[in-house]
Amino acid sequence: MKTIGLDVGSKTIGVAVSDALGWTAQGLTTLKWEEPDFATAKDELQKIIDQHDITKAVIGLPKNMNATIGPRGEASQTFAKELEAAFNIPVALWDERLTTMAAERVLLDADVSRKKRKKVIDKMAAVMILQSYLDANQ
């Protein structure tokens, strides 16, 4: 019973998966897609869901600092509904405020070059979203 964590952006989707016990999140990949066309991400997500026996999804919900939902949050809510309908798995939206900034800080502290950071930042944010969710729900 694994969970997939997604950091959904307008051009890329960071992907992380949990271990079978739901204790740890591991970064998997970053998918390219063409928002708002869910079909541009569907096949790759299907492969990951099948390969990793995914039974639940957690999608980062970008809220404004005052906890309101803006356009990016609405886009994540729409993506969550489409994912749930397409794959018939439960989807949880998880507050992702500051996860991209935290991921950037971790990569900076690890002295990862700017070029490499750009390639892995979404995947790292997905790990932070999923790990935060797993920690809160154990």
UniProtKB/TrEMBL annotation:
Its EC number is 3.1.-.-. It is an enzyme of class 3 (hydrolase). Pfam families: RuvX. Keywords: Cytoplasm, Hydrolase, Nuclease, Ribosome biogenesis. Transmembrane segments: none annotated. InterPro entries: RNaseH-like_sf, YqgF, YqgF/RNaseH-like_dom, YqgF/RNaseH-like_dom_sf. This is Putative pre-16S rRNA nuclease. It comes from Thalassobacillus hwangdonensis. The gene is ruvX.
